[in-house]
Queue: 4 jobs
Job 1
Amino acid sequence: MDSEDINLPIAEYVEAGVDWVQTNLTGLLDGISAAIGFIVDNLEDFLLWLPDWLLAVVVVAIGFWRVNWRFAIFAAVAMFLVFGMNLWEETVSTLALVLASSIVALAIGVPVGIAMARRDVVEMIVRPILDFMQTMPPFVYLIPAAIFFGLGKVPGTIATVVFAMPPAVRLTNLGIRQVSKEQVEAGLAFGCTARQLLYKVQLPLAMPSIMAGVNQTIMLSLSMVVIASMIGAGGLGNTVLTGIQRLNVGLGFEGGLGVVLLAILLDRLTQSFGQSRKGRK
Amino acid sequence: MAEDKIVLENLYKIFGPNPDDAFELLEKGHSKDEIFEKTGTTVGVRDATCTIKQGEIFVVMGLSGSGKSTLVRMLNRLIEPTRGRVLVDGDDVTAMDRKDLINLRRHDMAMVFQSFALMPHKTVLDNAGFGLEVAGIEKSKRDERSMKALEQVGLKANAESFPSELSGGMQQRVGLARALAMDPSILLMDEAFSALDPLIRTEMQDELLALQEQSQRTVVFISHDLDEAMRIGDRIAIMEGGAIVQVGTPEEIVTNPANDYVKSFFYGVDVSQVFNAGDIADRKQVTVVERPGVSVRAAFERLREHSREIAIVTDKSRKYLGMVSAETLTDQIKGGGEPKYSEAFLKEVEAVQSDMSLSDVLSRVAASRYPVPVVDSEGRYVGAITKTALLQTLDKAG
């Protein structure tokens, strides 16, 4: 049999679906766009409005408080490097995108994870969707994001949210399911309602796992934000992209270094908040 | 005569999708295993009927899988009974709606768990006040009551600690305080002391008895430990395969066991056949490890320090090499030359395999001047059997 004989027009179906959404759900798309745009723009404006030295001092101070003095020194050096490469604005813009995407991803992901842990049916439905979201090459998300929301920060953020959400969902679900049976029984035996069981027993005990999910989501956001520069999300990704387009090794390296430094800072800081729950004295 | 506090009427729990099939087979007199094979459902508890009196400690005893944990969880409906009724103070618990059930759990029944089940992110004080917090009692009043409960279990000084900073025994005291703070008329204790080491366990049992002196709660205590049941139980119910086979005072059960299963708890048919050498071997002997550079004199010093007569010599992988005594070591050291362990081994001592039955090692232990070392199939040192331990085991079996 020749492959010409069979022709599954999946590409056409997808396009038809996209067309339908575009014509019929304009209001919804505009609403999402406005909401996301509001978060990203305000966050970026705020972070850029802060004097650079103040932002730097805040980061170093948090590093000293949550991690240790060596990390604080590293943070200071890292930010000096970024500043010295004249990438401060790009880095802050990327940071704003990462934070905005992570906030949205967590605001959706954690409740979905909770629902998943409480009902097996939900888990059965959501799990394959998460698998799909995680195995799809991230570049593919850029196309519908750009079609629905045009070019710029908003579609960049949305593509990032889709890409970065799965670990938050999974680890929230896992964390709650891992709470020991006797601890759940203890909660119920002392008269917890379903809501009390969630807030007083399951969520606090799942917190280390949930915080690991938060950390993962933030790290994935960062990697996606760089890719999203292809649809005009801006920030450090833009620097890297320009480096590629002009085959400018130096520029590409500078952008890449900025991403790495930001990644280390975000990773260590978010991890420190996760650990504080576990090992608090 | 004390009045009835909890009444169980023909209580059943069938786990699985088709309880009705299981009931049909139960009526025909099939056993738990047969029913599982045929229908895939598990009979947790079958036809449990008994009365627990106000103010008594009622111990439910049985081997694991006999349904005792399921039974106690049906009292506060952590597990829903499939059939039958539970009455508390005459009220039908099985018929209660969500709201009444939660009220019952908040006011009348508190539970203590085998694994403690404390909240690691809360302080000891907040853990003790957990039930009160859930019941919506305001912070200051809650703290006052939980502090009083902590005082009762002797943990007032640790109120600001976190559970992870406490020993197992202390953690279970917190578990107990959490239950006492509710001032419940019924305490459900699910193998509450089983995770604790024997010394602490006895201490906790005494403490429970002392608490009972002060305020006569009705305690339903799950246990698989005969000594524990005899020590604290006013009455004991023995469960087998989901059914209650006998209820009575410890004396009644000892003098008049209902069947062989009950008897086996007390008389163990022939213990010397049931236990094997590994079961009663203990690690109380001094052990020394033979390795280059460590002199025989060091072993001698350790024996003197612990005022022991003998020591077990093993290699680095715990493989048993021999037994030395203070005497043979002294001979080696005095004998000049480089003293060696191997020269000091007691010739008459021979190790036994841990899977040998007690009856087979009986005469060896009885005839030996020294404890008899026990090794596993790979020759690793497991422990030693002393005459005292042997006699105690045989004696307990009656």
Job 2
Amino acid sequence: MNCKECEILITRKIAGEATSAEEAFLELHLKDCAACRQEYSELAGAKALLLKDSGCQEDAGMVSKVFAGIEREENKFRQGFFPRLALRSLFAVAAVLAVVFGYDAVYSVISVSDYTKILDFAKYSFSGGSEPVVKAALLHQQASELSAGSVDYMAVASLENALYSIDKHDNVRMIAILKDIVKHKAAGSFSGGAAKVCNDVFGGGVVVEAAACCPNARRVQDEILLAIESERTQNYDYAIRIYSDISKRPGIDGYTGSLTAMLAERSAESKLAYQRATKLKGEQKLKSLVKSLDYLQVVKTAEKEGAKTRDGKFLVGVSLSKAGYGLKSALVFNELKNESENGSDGKQDKKFAAAVRMNLGVAAEKAGVRSVAANSFNEFNSSGLTSPVNLSSYGIYVKYVLEPGSRPPNIVNAASARVQLDGKEMIRVQPHGEKWSVGEAFAEVKLWKEYDTFCFDAYNPGKNVLIFDFRVRAKTGDIKGRTFKYSIGVKPGASRVAIDLREATYVNGEPVRWNCNVHEWVLKQNIFGKTPEVFYVSNFRLERTRPAALLAEAQGK
Amino acid sequence: MSQLTDKNDEDLMLLTGKGNKKAFEELVKRHTRPLQNYFYRYFRNIEDSKDYAQQVFVQIFQSAKRYRRLSKFTTWMYTVARNLYINEIARRQKVRFSPLEFAENKGTRRNMVEDAVTGTDTAHFVRKSLDALPAEFKEVLVLQVYQDLKCAEIAKLLKIPEGTVWSRLHYGLKLFKKEYEKVTGEHEL
């Protein structure tokens, strides 16, 4: 036996796999060969050293954990995967049945309880940006239509086409379809919802159009919805009319009354500006009209009288954006941007260039063109200027609009946020944890009792669903000092996280109960409780997305 | 129960495939510690190791019906575990951020537990030296020395020739020894 063969036997002996014959041969060789003896003792010593590390202790509760994990997986399969597939099929089957056999066939296939699932499915499947909101709303309306018994196959087909257009990013086609739906289906329960859908797509101007198409919208829920959307788009008179009307009805508390007073004040200011505008001409008129918040009038005036200067174009762009026409507005600002880059506007005004970029970002964001929005905001940020307008009025914070795969340079890591509702009227978001580098800049204080949903955008750069903790602490009331902790799951990519604050309601200024719920669809995304190392959050905001809840409460009294 | 404890892993797995949960429970009891330690040798985090071991068991249970007695149960189990480890490593490398938990929990109870396990004794140097080895050598050492797999099984699991396993084991041990001397030398300095 030579030393090379012995080397193999040494390894086999140390691995405990040498046969007795091999061991005998090895022993003989080692007696004569000092080098191999040295080799053997070295390797045996190495293995002995390795065995000194006994590892970690056994987890005594592993059996129960494993069975809990198995159960969770089985539930997930039953409740998650299958319904998703089933619901996809459900839509297809419903549409076909509706076309071939009419509504009765659809109704016999889909039970009422399925509509909730359909809505859940819509929420679960799409997240981030305005498009998913529209998708969810469309699916919801589809469900409502079916459940209300007023479905016709044209409506179903139109909705399907609209959804298809969203997938293809063909916003123009989608808008045309939705307009068509509003005009032709403007009756009964569908009208208010259709207005909401349209408003999500292109804002206040269409809400008015939709409202005009909806003379029969008498359901309070739809009316409040219309009022809120009108208010959001500065159509105060219309909002006031609805609120005043609703507040006179029995069973409605002072909620709408206080809003009416607030809106009336704003409306008076707006009217004053409008009166001034009628006496002016050219850009001065446009400026005054902008102050009057009648953005559609600004656009009409500009079309009639022309907006030749860059300031005039800028005002038209802002007005289009405010009126909800994101795409048109983006085109105006894009033209202004090109002019300023080419120097064809004859001026080198950095401040103006930055304002154009910021507004282009806002408009592009509204139009759902996130890549343009992100680029514009980044360009605006690099200008080093502060925002020339109140960005919060857009509901957008420029720094953190992200393209998929990108990340804001000033966020290193983020763990959790603590939201404090002070029991009276304020909400404050505080960064929590030393790694949260966004600092106090995130803190936002608002009157929270007018809102029902606490929202923020989250961006998960990983491949897996991320889970993070969200804490809400009660500052007053019976449960003062109690912290509510929620685990929230965010899918890879950009998502909108919404936390329902509907339970945090008041009677005579005093808290009656105090709770927060995370939407179910967020929680469904938990997979094995694994947390990726980093994610990004931005755009903390309060929203009034659920007037139905307030209404239900009022009606329940 | 006594009958189940007498049975080998493969029989228990076949019983699990037929819906016998007690048989699976016995399997979990037998392999919890080795599996947990397998992950611990790579991730050096007790909680993560427990979680990954749990995931492996869940996956094994879900595929129990498809199990055939073509190879040893442990080979199969470590194949599942290795795939999980590889996926996790790929994911971590892609993200490349330091775990927040680590940054935030400095000095917390959990770290104290980790320290107690880590220590500053021989075992600590052994871990440090093992972690410093190239992945292919470490993998063979972990499977042979700690997980007690035969070299033929390791070859099957890693899909490499058996001769390669022997050679990796041989040179892996030598490299480890060298590394250990380096680490302890540094410590003495």
Job 3
Amino acid sequence: MKKKKRGVEPIYYAGVGIMGVLFFLFHTISFLKGVFYSFTDWKGYGDWNFVGLRNYLQIFKDTDTISAYLFTFKFAIICTILVNIISLILACALNSNIRFKNFVKGVYFLPYMLGSVIVGFIFNFIFANLIPAVGQHLGIDALSTNLLGTTSAIWGIIFVTIWSGCAFNTLIYLSGLQSIDTDVYEAAALDGAKGLRKFTRITFPLLAPSFTINMVLAAKGYLMVYDQIMAMTDGGPGISTTSIAVLIYKKGFGGGQFSYQMANAVVLFIVVVAVSVFQLRVLEKREEKIG
Amino acid sequence: MRRKRVFGTLALVLGMTCLLVTGCGEKTKELELFSSKAENADSLQKLVDEFNTLHESEGVKVVLNTPADAGTILKTRLAKNDVPDIMSMGGDVNYTEVQSAGVLADLGQESYMSSIQASYQQMVYDVQKDKEEVAYGVPYATNASGVLYNVDKFEELGLEIPKTWDEFLSVIDTIEAAGEKPFEFTLKDKWTGLCPWNSMAPDLQPDGFTDARLANETTFADTHTEIAEKYLTLLDHAQADFMGTGYDDGNKAFANGEAVMMINGNWAISQFTNANTDFNVDMFAFPASNDPAKNYVTSGVDVLFCVNKDSKNLELAKEFVAFMMEPDHAKQYINEQFAFSAVEGVVQEDAKVDGVKEDIANGKVANFPDHYYPNGFDLAALLSQMSLNHTEGMDRGENIKQFLASCDEKYDISNVQ
């Protein structure tokens, strides 16, 4: 017995080890380098000096950065909530015995297979050409201009993000739903639980682990939103849809503020970690209570 | 199967290493021509091939290299002290960066220097460190920005080319009275919002503004109200969805006659002809001022050549630049690229730019003012914000005040870093 326990196949260590080394080489080192340069005035090339915390202090004075944070949080909160509600509804519907279930599942998963930049370009065309044409035809003023060129551009991006983002969360909810023991439902049915009551008392509590994962992954992903925005509005009009990631890229590489935006990236990293840890704490406590 | 692939990869790697090693060999003299412009790669390659055939017997070979994101690559190579033999780039911040690193050869004694238009050489000096007047860079091709107009519609409506702002306004009125749209704006792509600004600012801003602003002796708020005011006036005569129209869509709409004028540059013309081969377009200098003498064509150095002073083949590199500057070759380049030449006597004869070619040949040109703004000052975003506020019905005076104030604020921020 004891011998067997010790004898872990070395191939497992090799597997973990190789991945660990690769991860360290290509992710951790570059990350640490970025942190290092955030304390300098490096422009991305040439000479540099240490400037201490100057870059970090500048962030709090920079109105562009502050408005980018406001936009990012607004975007992430709205998207996280809507994506989770819609995915949950979709998953419940797809889990019931509807017709063409597998076909419909495929249809809903399709947007996830497309890259978000492609999706962005497609919707760019829809917003710029198709919707205004329909709006003008019907004589609806609000629809006859390109939504992405107005102060409501954020809603265009949110719509596209939800459309392409729901698939993945639906998938996780579906697998969660399928792992719920049918015995539980039978027992509930005997006790007379039906419809919404069955959902709030049985299904949703038992979905707690999936809910936690989905909330954390969605919030993390949407706080770092980048490609949809680059493809659809390029941060405009003005800087009204500039997210933190977009700001970092644009000013860091195009504007010669490499080290300053590195500091910004470090702050974003801390914010994302903090939000995720907070969510995990709260949601895991909830899981324990239910469990 | 798998083993074969491994061998294949190994062979490829080996082969590439051999190539690299022989590339560094002494037998052939290989020069690198680094170009930061993807659009002119074909035209440059043709001329490079011609040069290479001429020098085949000597074993000289110029190799064109046009990487993506060339500006960043050039800066990193600069940091590694791996400077290409010959460089071709725009007269912008990237050039300033290379020039101020002190790696460029002085080309002032070359025979072609006397045939270069002084105003363009001056633009190169202006972006050099401390405005040093030494010819480290030779201007080659230039571009032009102004008002592009539909020639057929102008004739139909009996319009003349406006020479002053007041004439411009009456042209706009006539167009509107005839039920046509005066302007197509494409502000969905923010950079296009810079075109009217770049055309008006040289005519209307006080002399020496860029230097004075850099030294913090003046502000946008004190000097640029008229420009911002006229900017909003233009927007009042644009198509309804000017904020939501992108560059490609706008070009198509303009080429198909949906608007009479568009404020952009010669680079857009090929897009017009792609959308409508019969499109009859010409260009005139933006008449921002009521003094016709002040209404310059906005024209900047699109391509300049410079040479690494420590190149192993310095003489050959200089010879290549001289080859490019020969009038026949300069002419071939501008014809293919639809550009203008910095070489005197080499004139763009295409009718599509008829209206500005005389001014350009006479040197009545002003550089793009945004070439002088600090790196990181995102004026396009500020203009886009002002335009957005305008569509939201914000008070005109308040909007302009806010816009100019943020211009000064952002300028100062990017000037420090």
Job 4
Amino acid sequence: MNKQTLLAYCLLLPGLGLIIVFIFVIISMALAQSVGYFNFSGSSTFTWQFWQQILADHQLSRAFFYSLKIATISAILSVSFAYPLALWLRDPFRGSQFVSSLLKAPLLVHGLVAAFLYVNFISFNGFLNQIFVHLGLVSRPIRMQNDSYGIGVIILQVWKQMPFALLLLTGAVQSIGHDITDAAKDLGAGAWTRFVKIILPLTLKALQAALIIIFIGAAGDYSFQIVAGPIDVSSLAQLMLRIQANDANGWNLSATVAILLMLTALIGSALLALITQQVIKWGAKR
Amino acid sequence: MKSLLLSLTVATLTFATTAQASDDLSNMTWPQVVAQAKKEGTVVWYNWFYQDRFRGEVKSFENHYGIKVIIPDGSHDANMNKFLAQSSRPTGDIDVLSLGGSDLAKFKPEKMLIGPLSNLLPQNNTLKYKMEGVDSKGYAVAYWGNQTGIAYNPSLISQKDLPQTLSDFSAYFAKHPGMFGFNYEKGGSGPAFFQSIVRNVVPDIDYQTAQPTANTMAKLTPAWKWFNQRRGQYIITASNSDSMTRLNGGEFAMVASWEDLTASLQKEGDISKAIKFYIPKMTMPGGGNVVMIPKNAPHPAAALLFIHWLTSAKTQVTFNKDFGSVPQNTESNSHYALVNKAERKNSSLWPDKPLSDAINKAFINHVIFH
Amino acid sequence: MNKPCTNRLITLLVIGFCCISLVLPFSLAMLWSLVDPGHPWSYPHILPPVLSLQRWVDIWTTTSLPQALLHSYLLAPCVALCSVLLALPTAYAFGRLEFPGKQAAQLISLLPLIVPSFVVALFFSSLLNVLGIYSRFLGILIGQTVLFIPYAIRILSVSFSLIRQEIIDATRDLGGGPITVFKTAYLPVLKPGLLASIIMIFILSIEEFAIAFVVGSPDFVTVPTILYSYLGYNFIRSNAAVVSLILVVPNIFLMLLMERFLKARNTAVITGKG
């Protein structure tokens, strides 16, 4: 090993090294507790009992599909809203700076605050219902709080995550040279063709990054779920914390949910990224 | 060698002082306790509700004794977990711990608490050491009485139409779907309501003694059927407070609630003074909370003095007035209660703790996540 | 339709949408926060009957909000400093050195962003229990520091890569010692990146919910624990409104500050993912 390589590896220690140790220890901790080790009370022995118990629980499968649904829809919706905005903001114009800061504003609002503002807005005697009633659209306010489809959670996820996707996509879109798009224009490609054949393939990496990050965030959501989510189904993170606090073998059982949540986030986001790649390739070839 | 000996002696001495703390209190006269408490100067009270308002209430204690009261913002479960997790440490963070009466069944009071308080408190014979069917053997003392029931909006339902029995509720739900709300977590009033329905649908179980065996739980099936048949006629809310907020907003005519929650929200101006509260004839449970001193409390004398103040007749009357709680000192009266003496008879005991927990879990599984 | 006209139209649309999704909810929260405690806003009143600032005074004087702000705003700079200091060597290696396995190392450095935050928080708190670390401050500090190192690494490695070797060489040729080289070649290029990562991590630390909530619970109050209590368990609309409004204000100032430092730079670079 030459001197520079050795130096580089040493330099990685405090930052990257710490990250690796930390994440490794935490994941091993979860793995160990899920099979009965590191018990705070009682003896620590190897057992599959917690996995069997949790996998037989139908709350888990419901939570799994629910979190999967919320994460997929939120990720796809966020990037679909972000793309047109990113393209529009590609070339600076008067007021574009202002518009882009305005669009980034939700990044500043704490998730719980956003959830509260939303619930306040749609509540039975909230603004939206009062407007509906005054316009004569309905005779009695509609009950929208904690809707059982998770629409509230998806709206909040998109509201909060779209600016993030916008940041990533704006950067990617701006780095595409005008010569390429202009050349395509000269060859008679319409706006849609240019988007599908040039912009999408060239911004694939940023698109995948946005999808992955939003998917993982939404799959592990707790704060939107507790304030605005459905009452009759839990998200995986909510289930994990509830089991940890309420059950006699709380730590062990929640460790199994934690591992499932990690797998869901990783595999789900990777699949989403892969499918996106295939779809875009197919679209560009057509 | 000399230094080793010295450090050993110091270590033994420090150990001795911490171990002594709990035994010390029983050898002190009351004025000595007060003096020691003032020397300690601080008391940390882990109470899981109304923390912000209690910070105002304890001012009179702080001013009188010159002892600072710190009230952290922990939730019930988090406080309980902290207490259990810390119990092996020589000195903990908790001086006074509040818990629900039935929580005492989860651990051995004589092993983990200082006391019995009934031997340490000067006003011991006017106080209650048994709560929600659990006898603390004098280690935990009642400071808060509460009653579950139903809060209603008189402009949406008149007093004479209030449902009283199981069949009244069935009829009301069918006739006015979506006008009744209750929670299943974050607050005990919703569980009190569905437990009450369960008792009325399945009356042939002794809820005070029965254990949550498979046999007992199987008997409860008709109750889950009752709820599932009426799904959509009642609304599940996110928490106790959410129920009250939505009752106030005109969304519901009635919600499951606490007497003290209703009274204090009115007192704070968070809900309309027009909201009323009743206990239906089919009965709803009442109970209360207790305070105790963990063995490893950092300020045991101040803790004892604080509990003395907390359970005094005067403080109990103030709480009755400010929060609508039921006084736990036999020398205080309860002029400010929301329900009259006759209606108070509709108060029942909570089911035995293991059964109560099992019913709540079964409700979540069979009804909420059905 | 010509381009400026389209731009103006879309701008108006976006502004209109922001009004509905931002201004309106915040104004409603403002209205709720001003409800007088003596006169509840209840059905069937369409507007609050009496307005006053009493709730703001009550929340500030009786809750632990000031303490939570103190804790959070004490933690945030510590976390920011620790993360940046720990990230600097790695960022240097990523930005200025070539070595085998660099791409893999860069990917691995993003690990904390990939593991769901509540999983990290829960098992980190369990680890703290096993290790016997009882200080909540220290616990949150360690957890958040590791969680935010990736951001600092990404921003700073871009900064390091922007430093031009010619300037370093030229300074050396002119007889400059290590300090002079650092001052003339490194610092001017690094400075915006350093500031940006510090402010970014500062904001992230205040926002961070999982670790602060799980590790800090029940008695180490931070901004998220207060929010959880007032927006979740003890939900009372007027109080929730006051707390929300108080907490949003400092963030806006911080963001304006960050915008100033980052004006010239590509924002995608700053967020560390691209």
